[in-house]
Amino acid sequence: MKRAIQTKKEAWLHAVRLRTLPLALASIFAGSFLAAYKQVFRWEILLLASLTTVFLQILSNLSNDYGDTIHGADHQDRQGPVRAVQSGLISLPEMKKAMYLFGALALISGLLLLFLAVQDWVLFGIFLGLGLAAIWASITYTSGNNPYGYVGFGDISVFIFFGLLGVYGTFFLHSLTWNDSIIWIGIALGLFSAAVLNINNIRDIESDKTAGKQSIPVRIGKKAAIFYNWFLILGGNYCLVIFAFITDEWTALLALAIFPLMIKIGINVQRGKDSQAIDPNLKKMAIGTLVWVILFGVGLVFLGKS
Questions:
Q1: Cβ of 145: how many Cβ atoms within 10 Å?
Q2: What distance in Å separates the CA atoms of residue 131 and residue 143, rounded to the nearest whole number?
Q3: According to the model, what pLDDT value does residue 78 have?
Q4: Residues in Cβ contact with 95 at an 8 Å cutoff, skipping those fewer than 6 apart
Q5: pLDDT for 4-61, tens place per residue?
Q6: Which are the contacts of 47, defined by CB distance < 8 A and separation ≥ 6?
Q7: What are phi and psi of 70, to 5 degrees?
Q8: Distance between CA 70 and CA 141 in Å, rounded?
């Protein structure tokens, strides 16, 4: 049974969705650990990149609440957690103002990050473009006339922004250099991030069908979506093994200490009969991904050869 939202403060906390923030920070931490491993780490880059990413994630969450209300995914028969606008405590205009606020905060924080990290105007322009693309992706996932989340492209977006771009982009802002081996950690974080979204979409599969939201689980069915979930979890950890093999930094495999928890999450999602049984695994996968990154960083930076 859904627990009703009682106050406006509680509604805003629901809208922000604090449990998603660890996942947003995971790719930033991974890129920063890799920078520390290469001895090019800068604290100001970590802090501003983290702040920008948190603002973008909150923007995405607010936009999702707003867009799903507009497009009908957050209807009264929806089985997942009650959303902020759906509760009636926050109006659509109020949510839209909050979206503008966090979009502006993300832009300001991102510009400060680029001014500190990049001296070349060409690179500045490239990263500014990527930042604006991230803001656009955060807003248009479920908002606007043609939200890409409603046609099943959300997984691609999180794979790019929470994986490849999050990890590689953060490392580059620290170091201003490229490193081919880092791509495997970017892929790993992209797969884990897609797993979090996939668990969310498996939970909401019935309500999304009703609303016409063609997420991947809706498109391929729950059974295939569970198989896809296993691919994402196992694939992310396999990428870590490839990274360790390429770099000969086997202590990075300390991250596999969290692997049993990820297996448990996969089993719980597979066995979950309804949205209430599946929902707790969303938070566990998000936090598990961040713990995976921290263990990876400890193994690589403090126990590794370099």
A1: 6
A2: 18
A3: 47
A4: 15, 62, 65, 66, 84, 85
A5: 566 777 777 777 888 888 888 999 999 999 999 999 999 999 999 999 999 999 998 8
A6: none
A7: -60, -40
A8: 13
* pLDDT tens digits along 107-159: 999 999 999 998 889 989 999 999 899 889 888 877 766 778 777 888 999 99
Helix, strand, or coil (residue 65) = helix
Show the tokens assigned to 297: 């960083």
Q: State the sign of the Cα–Cα–Cα–Cα dihedral 291, 296, 301, 303.
A: positive
Question: Secondary structure of 194-263 in the HEC alphabet?
Answer: HHHHHHHHHHCHHHHHHHCCCCHHHHHCHHHHHHHHHHHHHHHHHHHHHHHHHHCCHHHHHHHHHHHHHH
Q: In terms of DSSP H, where are the helices of the chain?
A: 8-16, 21-37, 43-71, 84-87, 92-117, 121-140, 154-159, 165-175, 183-203, 205-211, 216-220, 222-247, 259-271, 275-278, 280-297
Neighbour tally for 172: CB within 10 Å: 22
The answer to whether 229 and 196 are in contact (CB under 8 A) is no
Please count the CA atoms within 13 angstroms of the CA of 240 that sit on its side-chain side: 28
Single out the residue of 178, 214, 213, 192 nearest to residue 281, CA to CA: 192
51-83: b or e for each residue (b if 16 or more CB lie within 10 Å)? bbbbbbbbbbbbbbbbbbbbbebbeeebebbbb
CA distance 89 to 112: 35
Question: What are the structure tokens assigned to 300, written together?
Answer: 């690589």
pTM of the model: 0.91
Number of residues assigned to the chain:
306
